[in-house]
Amino acid sequence: MASSSSYNSPCAACKLLRRKCMPGCIFAPYFPPEEPQKFVNVHKIFGASNVTKLLNELLPHQREDAVNSLAFEAEARVRDPVYGCVGAISFLQRQVQGLQKELDAANADLIRYACNEIPTGLPAAPGTSSVQPLTPRNRPAEFNRRIGNEGGGFYQPPGAFPLPYSFPWNDNSSGGMNDGGEGGM
User: Fold this and answer.
1) Among 67, 96, 117, which residue terminates a domain?
2) 159 inside domain
3) How many structural domains compose the chain?
4) Percent of the chain scored above 70 by pLDDT?
5) How far apart, in whole angstroms, are the C-alpha atoms of residue 76 and residue 118?
6) Would you say 40 and 68 are in contact if contact means Cβ atoms under 8 Å apart?
7) pTM of the full predicted structure?
8) Do 110 and 65 fall into the same domain?
9) With contact defined as beta carbons under 8 Å apart, do 112 and 139 qualify?
10) For the segment 72-127, what is each residue's pLDDT rounded down to a tens digit?
């Protein structure tokens, strides 16, 4: 829990709302005077009255997590008013998908090199290679574990779960979350 306000300094919430910070102030443990922007964002997005109601409905041990979640969502909404946390999550998902593709390429190279270095029991005829290329028929079964049956899917390691849905904003190929706010999604 964050430090409670001292007698001289009201909590960030009471200071912004221009009211006297009472000893039992529900905001004081979560919005210390050293972090005024935290409450400014939460108040701007959710409203002080709604936050008060929410905190009063929760058990005391749940309040800190709730305030941290509200503060995170509020900051995300201030930075990206349209998508908020979803925009941040989709950005991170695109980043994970890019890294997954890089990992898949490295795994494919590793499997190809490992399969090409396995000696065969039969001697090769002069002028021919004993190394077989990795084709869909002679690839290891683990290599063929893909999300889709066509080649568009990516390698799905054992135990991983595919995403149940995709976001429409994942289709753009830009790296940033915002491309200047110029529509055209």
Assistant:
1) 117
2) no
3) 2
4) 59
5) 52
6) no
7) 0.51
8) no
9) no
10) 999 999 999 999 889 889 999 999 999 999 999 999 999 999 888 766 555 555 55
Last residue of a domain, one of 59, 93, 117: 117
Q: Is residue 89 part of a domain?
A: yes
For 77, residues 6+ apart whose C-beta sits below 8 A from its C-beta are 41, 45, 84, 85
Is residue 172 a contact partner of residue 185, using CB atoms and an 8 Å limit?
yes
Please indicate, yes or no, if residue 30 is contained in any of the structural domains.
yes
Tokens of 142: 């683990």
Quickly list DSSP for 147-171.
Answer: SSSSTTS-B--TT----S---GGGS
- DSSP one-letter string for 10-33: --HHHHHHT----TT-SSTTTS-T
pLDDT for the residue numbered 14: 94
Write out the residue range of the structural domain in which residue 63 sits: 12-79
5-50 per-position pLDDT tens digit: 445 689 999 999 999 999 889 999 999 999 999 999 999 999 999 9
Residue pair 35/64 in contact by the 8 Å Cβ criterion: no
126 within domain boundaries: no
Q: For the packed helices 36-46 and 60-79, what is the interaxial angle rounded to 10 degrees?
A: 80
Give the number of C-alpha atoms closer than 13 A to the C-alpha of residue 4, restricted to the C-beta side: 7
| C-alpha closest to that of 97 among 108, 89, 86, 85 | 89
pLDDT value at position 115?
87
Contact 170, 93 (CB under 8 A): yes
Residue type (1 letter), 2: A
